[in-house]
Design goal:
about 80 residues; mainly beta; two-stranded antiparallel sheet; two-stranded antiparallel ribbon; 1 helix; 6 strands
């Protein structure tokens, strides 16, 4: 965690995200951002046969600019630039 803080990064997952049967709980799934624009992390039941929690969260951001001028292999690419709130 100190490496994240030294690089001004934030890790938002605070609870274990993996459990299989009676095995020990582990935090294997992380959400790392460069700003605190992420809120309301929810830990939901795994989907299907997975033993990892589904992480649901909110992002609080403003769209600064949208550009649709680029094309990649004939497909229009939309670039969205965000700024944190």
């Amino acid at each position: 965690m100190s490496v994240l803080h030294e690089n001004l990064l934030f890790q938002h997952v605070e609870q274990p995200t993996r459990q299989r049967g009676s095995d020990m709980l582990h935090t294997l799934d992380l959400i790392i951002t460069s700003d605190k624009f992420l809120t309301d992390v929810e830990y939901l039941s795994p989907l299907g046969m997975s033993d990892h929690s589904v992480l649901k969260f909110s992002l609080q951001m403003f769209v600064d600019r949208v550009s649709a001028a680029d094309k990649l292999d004939g497909i229009k690419v939309i670039t969205v630039t965000f700024v944190s709130s």
